[in-house]
Design a protein that fits this description.
Number of helices: 5
Shape: rod-shaped
Radius of gyration: 68 Å
Mean pLDDT: 87
Largest sheet: 6 strands, mixed, barrel
Strand order of the largest sheet: 25-29-26-28-27-30
Number of strands: 30
Strand content: 35-45%
């Protein structure tokens, strides 16, 4: 038997279209119902915390709407219109939330909800009154979240010898003094320290400093002190009296208000001047040395003398000095020379032949004649020398202490001569070469003077040559 083919072609069993149609109709009906539900909801605006939100609702009153929106309400919150007001399309619901504030007072903290913003209004709203000296502080004066009330307390103030009570709510000693308009100087002493916190049993003690003026080291210091004496006040100001320093008034005198203290810096020091002490020249005869030869036995060394003067200065100005005191810090050492005394006859070749001499002396020479002696030509003594001879060439004037009168001499370029005259200016190694008025020649400079043999028994020492 042949099978019939389906009108839809080959395949499985045939599906009926009725169930599908029913499903479609149900979904469509649901969509229409949903659309009608949405369309039927009323549009309202909720304003809260400066925000506005538009919503649609089927709720019948404001309370149900806010509950549906999850808005939690405190009893202090303000809703407009009221919670039982019916919902109307296009209505605006305003919610004013009360903000929390913590109030600390008398050791206790309470939380309140308020619409007030001024701290004073918040306190008044909660029946908290402030006495005259009570104070409060807050985290934010515009919109406080915390308010602390401090009740004034009575503390004792001792200002030098004056005692009184202060009614204050200040937290520290310094704040209490500032609140009471009590002026303090840097040098004033306050106990307890101004930074310390006040308590009910606090006693504030002020030890006042005394105003003084100190003149020291060229400056004027206007200051205050707790010192009771001059020395204590100076020490407190860091001024020390050192050594001979002094003060006016004296250091042990008491301090008085507005007094002026003069400090005088005193110093004493030695001014020392060093001078040289000359040494002596000592000569000793030495028969082993040729005549007039010198040998240094001990070199001379000058000494040192110090002159000390004690000088006193006040504030840098000299006021006195002591009498000089001197002493030798290093004594001089004398120079000792050996002078030869051994006479040796020597020879000298001259234009007139060989001469024998025992000493030669370098002398400063000049010449003179009878007319230059100051004696008038008519004077019987005109041209007469100290030896009684008439002045002429060959008669010379010498110092008898060096060359005895009558000693035979030889002077190069002058010739042989005899020591026959003296003169007021002829001293030491000076010789005047004599001439007559007719053969006068002028001399200057130095010459070698030979003392001819024989040598005398007593030979005078030869003085040192003058520069």
């Amino acid at each position: 038997m042949q099978k019939r083919r389906s009108a839809r072609g080959y395949g499985g069993p045939t599906t009926s279209p009725l169930p599908i149609l029913i499903t479609v109709l149900i979904v469509f009906a649901a969509l229409i119902a949903a659309g009608l539900y949405v369309v039927s909801a009323q549009s309202v605006v909720v304003s809260m915390d400066d925000q506005r939100v538009t919503t649609r609702t089927h709720q019948t009153n404001v309370r149900a709407l806010l509950s549906e929106a999850g808005v939690y309400l405190e009893k202090e919150d303000v809703v407009s219109p009221g919670l039982d007001s019916p919902i109307r399309a296009g209505m605006i619901i305003s919610v004013a939330k009360a903000h929390p504030v913590l109030i600390e007072i008398d050791g206790q903290t309470q939380r309140v909800l308020t619409h007030k913003t001024a701290p004073q209004d918040i306190l008044a709203e909660n029946n908290i009154t402030l006495a005259e000296h009570d104070i409060f502080d807050t985290d934010d004066p515009a919109t406080p979240r915390y308010i602390r009330v401090v009740r004034a307390r009575t503390i004792k103030l001792i200002d030098n010898t004056q005692s009184r009570d202060l009614l204050t709510a200040a937290r520290t000693v310094g704040e209490a003094l500032a609140e009471a308009k009590i002026a303090l100087y840097v040098a004033d002493s306050v106990m307890p320290d101004p930074s310390m916190a006040l308590s009910d049993d606090t006693t504030i003690t002020i030890e006042r400093s005394t105003p003084i003026t100190i003149r020291v080291d060229g400056r004027t210091l206007v200051t205050r002190t707790h010192g009771k004496t001059i020395s204590a006040a100076l020490a407190e100001s860091g001024i020390a009296l050192v050594g001979l320093d002094s003060s006016d008034p004296l250091p042990d005198q008491p301090i008085k208000p507005e007094m002026t203290i003069h400090v005088t810096r005193v110093s004493e020091a030695d001014e020392v001047q060093r001078t040289e002490l000359p040494f002596k020249h000592i000569t000793q005869s030495d028969s082993t040395l040729d005549l007039d030869m010198r040998r240094v036995i001990q070199a001379g060394q000058a000494g040192v003398q110090e002159v000390h003067v004690r000088v006193r200065r006040e504030d840098g100005v000299e006021v006195s000095r002591s009498a000089p005191q001197s002493w030798a810090v290093q004594p001089p050492h004398d120079e000792i020379d050996a002078i030869g005394t051994r006479v040796t006859i020597k020879t000298l070749e001259t234009p007139n032949g060989t001469l024998h001499y025992w000493r030669v002396i370098k002398m400063r020479a000049a010449s003179y004649k009878p007319s230059s002696t100051g004696t008038a030509a008519v004077d019987p003594l005109y041209g007469i020398t100290a030896s009684g001879q008439k002045l002429r060439k060959g008669i010379v004037a010498v110092d008898p202490a060096l060359i005895p009168l009558g000693t035979p001499l030889y002077i190069p370029n002058y010739g042989e001569a005899v020591a026959g005259d003296t003169g007021g200016g002829v001293k030491g190694r000076v010789i005047d070469l004599g001439y007559s008025d007719n053969d006068y020649q002028e001399w200057s400079g130095s010459v070698d003077v030979y003392l001819l043999a024989p040598a005398p028994a007593q030979i005078p020492p030869l003085p040192e040559e003058q520069p």
